[in-house]
Amino acid sequence: MNLEFSAEDIAFRDMVHQFIAAQYPLSLRTKAASDEEATKEDFLAWHRIVAKQGWIAPAWPKEYGGPGWTPVQRYIWSEACAAADTIPILPFGINMLAPVVYTFGTPEQKQKFLPPTLSGDIWWCQGYSEPGSGSDLASLKTKALRGTDAEGDHYIVNGQKTWTTLAQYADWGFFLVCTGDASMKAQQSISFLLIDMKSPGVTVRPIITLGGEHEVNEVWLENVRVPVSNRIHDENKGWDCAKFLLAHERSGIAAVARSKRGIDKIKGIARSERRCGQPLLNDPFFKRKLSELEIDLTALEYTELRTLAGENAGKGPGPESSLLKIKGTEIQQRVTELALEAVGHYGAPYFRGFPDDGDNMHPIGPDYAHRAAPTYFNGRKTSIYGGSNEIQRNIIAKMVLGL
Amino acid sequence: MDFNFSEEQGMLRDSLKRYLADAYGFEQRKLIVNAKSAEPSRHWKAFAEELGILGASFSEAYGGYAASGSNGAVETMIVMEEFGKALVVEPYLGTVVIGGGFMKHSANAMAADVIAKIIRGDALIAFAYAEPQGQYNLADLCTTARRDGECYILNGHKAVVIGAPSATHYIVTARTSGAQWDRDGVSVFLVDARNPNIARRDYPTVDGQQASELYFENITVPAENLLGAEGQGLSLVEQVVDEAIAAVSAEAVGCMRKLHEGTVDYARQRKQFGVPISSFQVLQHAMVDMFMEVELALSMTTMLTLKLSEPAHARSMAASATKVQIGKSCKFVGQNAIQIHGGIGISNELTIGHYFKRSTMIESQFGSVDHHLQRYDTLSLAI
User: Fold this and answer.
1) C-alpha span between A298 and A292 (Å, rounded)
2) B169-175 and B125-128 as β-strands: parallel, antiparallel, unpaired?
3) pLDDT tens profile A137-188
4) Residue B370 and residue A283: Cβ atoms within 8 Å?
5) Domain boundaries, chain B
6) Which residue from A minimizes the CA distance to B355?
7) Which of A191, B10, B194, B195 could form a disulfide with A238 if both were Cys (CB 3.0 to 4.6 A apart)?
8) Looking at domain B234-381, does it have CATH number 1.10.150.130?
9) Is the separation of the CB atoms in B13 and B85 below 8 Å?
10) Fold that domain B7-124 belongs to in CATH
């Protein structure tokens, strides 16, 4: 047992660090440092650079365009990205949908959807949650009725999805819909459909969140015609895809490196902010909270590394990954809390302007302050999304403790 | 010992509650917030004339309606608690509690006149005390005031002055002597907001209020506008800020009460897995813990409100203790309210998120939990 990376892994780490240092656009660097909202072009710019290098899909099998990295190498890459505070590679296509396509899809579906997902030419969104179905995903109401006309076999889809992240930019979405009848068990009447967001009947409406962001949307589906060839896996087998996808969604959910970077930012703030002329960082009360946070993050980091070592040895991530989700999101939230606390009075000004009047003004106060409150508000989502932390605790109780 | 409200106090609460229910609903408030006006809303006149609440915490000697012999603190608590429940953004705290407080306690010759204007709704006051470098230390001042004949000349930058855009007057803390954070050398001035050498940069706050940065460049303030003795203003500032802490604590209690009630209501209605989520024990316990936090917060607020007339040391310990409780309770109640609501709690369209935003801002208003823990530590060692 030892804590060291192998010589190969260290060489790999140096290589990815050099790549990011050389290739990450300067414009994105300054934007991320002040927690500015990223645009579609921002996301795509970095996506394309990494895709060109062949590293965009670390977990994909080589035959579909993955780089053939080990779990440890994937971890090193994501750490390096977070340490450099790069704009995230959006997970919807690369981490969530694609594994479903290459595992359950037909050769035609793989051919049609995998290459443009890699290149960034298809922007995916995830149509899971509904107004009445959050934690209880199996209760969804969006209905897909099978039919045939001159143009072939199709479904007519009706329903409403919600909390759809960045759907305003999406070219395609993957949706869980109900294809069975009332007599069937919920989990056995769900199908997994790919829907072209430009199809007639698809309407995307913004949901503005507490910090004023337009990050999530309602997606309305009214008589949307979807060819049967856009269904992944068998009819009524969508739940298998969904469960499989959830297991893949977990990778990186602990966000250890992002939280480390967040703690570094707080230290920067606390060096500038002063109490009676002394840096806030020297304040014993503040310092104690920061140290506790760092220690909790270290505990999370080594828990993730243990999980990772197991994965490298061929054991898939089990329900223990719920632990990473719970502790990881709690720590992310504490980072945003402490940042807001550190900025003092300048946490109060609001500079986005309400979405309909678009009067973005030049902020006052230090640069590190003006996004602290919106980031804290928005960060409350992390313990809610991806299976709320209550649901994750239920999973551990049931699957790990056997209760 | 008596924790009951008088009949008049009960009537004050009822009439204000009725008014806010009719005229200050969430949609109506949204219009006020989105208008970002530099004028007070139409409600201010109604507060003065229809409801008379602007005079509720002033004694008869000033033309107010507080019970004789009372300091009006209980009346302020009632008003602020109801304001918290309705998320009122009108400048009552700055004008009545802080502005009125400075006028009452400073025994300035203009006090009667200014208070009469406050009660009529004609004077609106914003408290310019914070500075970019000072965090929550009331004595940490770079703004200076220099005596020049019958006037003082003020220079400096005041940060995040809540209510400044609509104010007719500012109450400004400035240093007349001493080093940057000495206790001695702090002076307080009543400054006419129309003074031409004040530059103002207005902006909204995350909780729907209006605020400004104020930049003073050689502004001239008549010497009679000095509140209290020159250089000895800090104890006056501390007294008024302790009173303001009692007021925002009452507002927080109102706000948290709504967060808790809204969460319990939602949990009863929201069904997942075929049952209301209120049937899950883990959520029941969270809602019970929220309830206990609101009760403890109310207890501390009541204690502080009743101790505001005590000598400075006891009053300040009570204020800091209360603010610690309020800060912790706001965080716990707010975060759990959002968590139990799930995604919908983060939407800007529901009231719950707006209560969360306001209660979050109260956590640090007039000092964070850490600030008041340290103040309490210092005060308790000085017994």
Assistant:
1) 10
2) parallel
3) 888 999 999 999 888 899 999 999 999 999 999 999 999 999 988 788 878 9
4) yes
5) 7-124, 126-227, 234-381
6) A210
7) A191
8) no
9) no
10) Butyryl-Coa Dehydrogenase, subunit A; domain 1 (1.10.540)
